[in-house]
Amino acid sequence: MSSANLIRLGGLATILAGASVITTTVVAFVVPMGSTNTAEEFVTSGYAWLIWSLVVGFILLQIGLVTMYAERLEAMGVIGLVGFVVAFFSTAMTLGYGLALTLVVPAVAGVTPTDSSVPSCVAVY
Fold first, then answer.
1. Please, which of 26, 41, 50, 114 could form a disulfide with 35 given CB 3.0 to 4.6 Å?
2. Which domain holds residue 73?
3. The pLDDT value given to residue 25
4. Alpha carbon distance 65, 124 (integer Å)
């Protein structure tokens, strides 16, 4: 595959990432999850779809960042390298946060103790 086609695919990945992140964010604010209990909200399928679409969007954004930087490597210089590294690692940290929301939070929310099973001294905190 030629480098021009790889750059085009990277541009497509960036466009899809932007569409995914914007759509997911708008849907998260507009559509209510349907539960007043936060622990129940984290184990619903709607929550899983929203967070997984964000994770996929951030993965596509990582691919897009690499292809955009690779295309303009010589023209960017040192300042471009610093900007790319900052953007790449901040997106990677956001992706890690999304993966934690996707995998860890529903697992913890599924085993949340009720107030009757927790000693009263612990339930206060």
1. 41
2. 37-110
3. 87
4. 46
* pTM (2 d.p.): 0.77
Averaged over successive runs of 10 residues, the pLDDT of the chain (125 residues) comes to 86 94 88 65 77 91 92 88 94 90 78 56 46
Confirm whether 12 is domain-assigned: no
Q: What is the pLDDT of residue 123?
A: 45
2 sits in the region (left: phi over 0; alpha: psi -120 to 50; else beta) called: beta
**Domain total for the chain?**
1
| pLDDT (0 to 100) of residue 71 | 86
Q: How many CB atoms lie within 10 A of CB 63?
A: 16
Per-residue model confidence (pLDDT) at position 33: 63
Whether residue 15 is contained in a domain is answered as: no
- As a whole number of angstroms, the distance between CA 42 and CA 112 comes to 11
Nearest to 20 by CA among 60, 48, 65: 60
Q: Which stretches of 1-125 are DSSP H helices?
A: 3-30, 38-42, 45-71, 73-110, 120-123
102 within 8 A of 52, measured Cβ to Cβ: yes
Half-sphere exposure of residue 121, counting CA atoms within 13 Å on the CB side?
Answer: 0
